[in-house]
């Protein structure tokens, strides 16, 4: 018995310390970014390949400055030409004589996407999105990116062996870690819909996201209120950071000059400069139980940006609540249920309407977006008691937000107080009944 317990503890520790355990998200358990490496042709000394990145996540997306794909060549391979993307550094190509030099001679090349509007002769199919990948739910036409390249084989490659894959892939996006490349069935394609062809070989690399690796501190928090209680439950104190501690920089005034804010280059995400608060989070989500009808109830959701230096484009909000299966109408936001676990429909995703509120602007008068949601009261389940109307979990842009403690949720009016206030009415009713009888 004792031996079985020790074995169980051992495996629990192994799972806990495994980097993949940090990447599990119960709201999107199978989400990942897949890198597909297709060998198109073998030209003797060079190889043509097509590299594709697919964001196979339900709600987490890649925003600016975008992905920065990198890998390690196993030998002295060099990239001769590239379409649809480019290497950030050419590297030392001195050993190549003549006027034409390789595109990149780096042992660890860093590849970035081209910007929209790139010259036509530099483009490839499904390229040039500035490194941005939308989630599968928000836009199925922009969740992938592709580029092609021709590279020189290693000097001492075996002519009779299969292709050699690079190793140590990285996406250059905080929070993502990539596994080892593995071979899969060759990709098939068609030009006319009748005849199918296939590439020589296909390899995949799977990259998963960990909120813990992306940031040791949360990035958002939730506050709550309800029409039946005057109390507004704020975000928990020190949800993201604590004022006064190292690294907890904030600005106390809304009138901060842009010239006073720190400047960063375009290749690195800007460091948050947030307004001082008790919770010190750049994003606050407020859930307000607004109104109750006979058969329906209404919720107002407000997302406020407290970051002075960041706009959130293509933002999204994911909510876990049992009554989302009965959403009747959503105002001013897009909405789609996420059926992650079979027929259970208690997870929903909200995002902005294009050209209207799909960008959450930096902190200021316009630094918020809001919606109202009308839900049907499911008989036998709906109740205002015990905080049932409040969400179980909320995430913003794929990062889970800090919720208040359940014992602080707005409560229904005290029943004793209700009895006291209604007792005069009962007394008058009984008196009138006695008189008429």
UniProtKB/TrEMBL annotation:
GO biological process assignments: cellulose microfibril organization; plant-type cell wall cellulose biosynthetic process
Keywords (A to Z) from UniProt: Glycoprotein, GPI-anchor, Lipoprotein, Membrane, Signal
Membrane topology: Lipid-anchor; GPI-anchor
Chief location: membrane
Signal peptide: 1-23
Record's subcellular location: Cell membrane
Any Pfam family hit: COBRA
Recorded GO CC terms: plasma membrane; side of membrane
Residues in COBRA C-terminal domain copies: 219-410
Family in the record: Belongs to the COBRA family.
Protein name as annotated: COBRA-like protein
Species of origin: Canavalia gladiata
Lineage start: Eukaryota, Viridiplantae, Streptophyta, Embryophyta, Tracheophyta
